[in-house]
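Quick log. Single chain, no ligands specified.
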Amino acid sequence: SMPSEMLLKIFSYLDAVSLLAVGCVNKRFHELANDNGIWLKLYSSSLHPKWTIWKMKSKQTETVSLGCAALNDKKPGYWKKEYIFKQTSAFKTRVMRLVKFLDPYTGLPCKNKEAMKVSGLSWIIVLKDKNGKEHVVEKPNLSFKDTSVTVLWHGTDWPCLDILSTLKLFGVTPLLPDQSIPSNKNGPRRFSLIAEYHLANLTENSAVVGADELVQLFSLSPGLLVGIWKGKNEIAFVMANLHYNQLLERSILGSANIQYSPPPNKPLLDDIDSEYGLHDYSLHLDLHGRNCMYLCGSFKCLFCRKRDIENGYLRLRVVNLKDNRKHLPIIGTLGICWETDVFKGNVKDCFVMDLTLLDETGKPFWCFSAPVHMKLSTKLSGLYDYMGHIYTADYADSEGKVCVEFVWLEETKEYIIVSLVLYVSTKKVNSWYGTNY
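-> predicted structure:
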């Protein structure tokens, strides 16, 4: 029963976040909270910081006079959209400025954590059942590494796997970020779709990574690990492995329905070098199990000879079976740690591989973070130094393949990497460098 004029007067004292919240109360409040007069005032105040207003009296008077025409000419909600667009653009610029500083070893932004903190970024998953109902899962556990972040969700109220159709992974940021106000999940937020996974026939169509006494792990590309309770068709946890390369862009610059697409690489043509695109690659490789690091190594000056190009792949040999000086010991026992509200465990003989391959200019060329499982090979080691069982671990996507061979030393109870080979797609190389191999 309160007059609209009185409500508008009250609304004029609200900040932008509160104004957006009150607009969700009912239809009448929504219409009043879209008032151009209130939003033009907020928009104008955001243009002139308080400490400079006293210097800009003439400009301020001009803004107010122009505002009268702007109120009559624009549809309700126009200045609300303009204000939100201005604030989100300034926010994205501020965050992207932080990630311009690159780590010389990994070629990735070295202030990722700071940028995530400034942005208020978090990640959620949305499970959609076959009836169209959505179940939002928040409050993940985060584990940061040199080149990736592992995000783990678990709970006691997961929907039954039989009724689920899709899983969507979103980056979530406050719609109007303000460092003085803590992020509130009930406040206005912006969703950026990172990936969408189909859960129909998950256990039949997905790769099995490993299992322990309680759970079985299934891998979905790219980088998602789903833990299923043994003996039950129910989800125990979901683990996402997110590589830092373009992580912030995908988590912020996309929309709720469309994934962010990075701009294509502009090749720098080299007419002098006949083997342009075949040499001077650098690799940074991490092997970890979410909470523990097994291997962290960097490798320079990787190359491929033209005669080593076969079946549409360039071969980059990182660790040679015959050169034991470059063989790599693994620290600890390989496995992926997991936990829920009640149980925790460790699935052995699998790990998360973070690969960052840089081109000759130091620019990220091929990057991923994904779970990988080991298999016992039928052959035995023929090396004099290592008389043990050989294990293999392979990874493949549209851009290339990774093949790793381990030898298990029973005496010292450790794994040794005796072979590591990358196979990079010639299609990827040709589009990146503008070559024709």
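The chain has a mean pLDDT of 86.
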